[in-house]
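INTERNAL AUDIT FORM
Audit reference: QA-55
Scope: verify that the stored structure record matches its stored sequence.
Auditor: D.O.
Record contents follow.
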Amino acid sequence: QVQLVESGGGLVQPGGSLRLSCATSGFTFSTTPMTWVRQAPGKGLEWVSHITRDGDTGYADSVKGRFTISRDNDMKTVYLDMNNLTPEDSAIYYCNFRGNWGRGTQVTVSS
């Protein structure tokens, strides 16, 4: 059974940093491209970043230069390092692949 469990969210001040993790099981992680998506209150889903099986990455313009996605195939975990956070980054962050979703982790950026 596929499981995706996000963690690492929380309340942080503007300019702060967080590291999100998505621990996975139930599929061959090492060959699976992974995506981070977020949903702000009252808004639709927004693609944030992806990482291919080979480690190639892509970022939304809104996070480019501030967020870094990475993966640890031994740990079957994908990470999202978020720096210089702004209130506009407040959202529930989800990892996903091929229609499989975790329950998300809440990120709130506020002073």
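Auditor finding: record pair retrieved intact. The radius of gyration is 13 Å.
Action required: none
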